Amino acid sequence: LFGGMAIMHLVGLYDDFKNLPAIWKFVLQMAAAAIITSGGFLIRSITLPYLGSINLGLAAYPLTIVWLVGIANAMNLIDGMDGLASGVGLLVSGTLTLVAIHHENFGVAITGAALAGSRAGFLLYNWHPACIFLGDSGSLFIGLLIGVIGVQGWRWWSQQQAENASVLYNAVSAAARANAVAKAKEAELLAAFRAA
Known about the structure:
Elements: H1 2-17, H2 22-38, E1 45-48, E2 52-55, H3 60-77, H4 84-102, H5 106-126, H6 135-195
Antiparallel strand pairs: 1-2
Helix pairs in contact: 1-2, 1-6, 2-3, 3-6, 4-5, 4-6, 5-6
């Protein structure tokens, strides 16, 4: 994780001082995201309405890389006005923190809270008229970290959903068995009543 984050930050830092060609910037961002995914930070499955959970298999790697690079670049693109990227970063990381706390995913909650706190402190000096700026190094780093927090929160949520689905399946199976037993008893009682 730290290697990929460092590469993303250095790509942005280099681009802040020298104009890095877009293709090289993109390739290096993909490399940073690939390093992070190789550490196990993956979107392993997705859940779709009416289709249920779909295991992505090897497609998890490119999908996660696209997600991480996309979120990092989205944050970079909105870093055009004073306070915009910092404010969005604060709102997103704060929301992810609250969701993680609600689901008792404290590792993600601590990371999200640290990011939200840093964004709140930075926003004081980045508000119009700004005296400090994120630049590509800051906005790419923040975007990548938000993407990783989202992947980690999703991974915990999907594990919970799998456990919930198992519990639900067991409950429905038990109810179906109980219903079958009840119908058999009902038929037996009805037969006994008719015989009497």
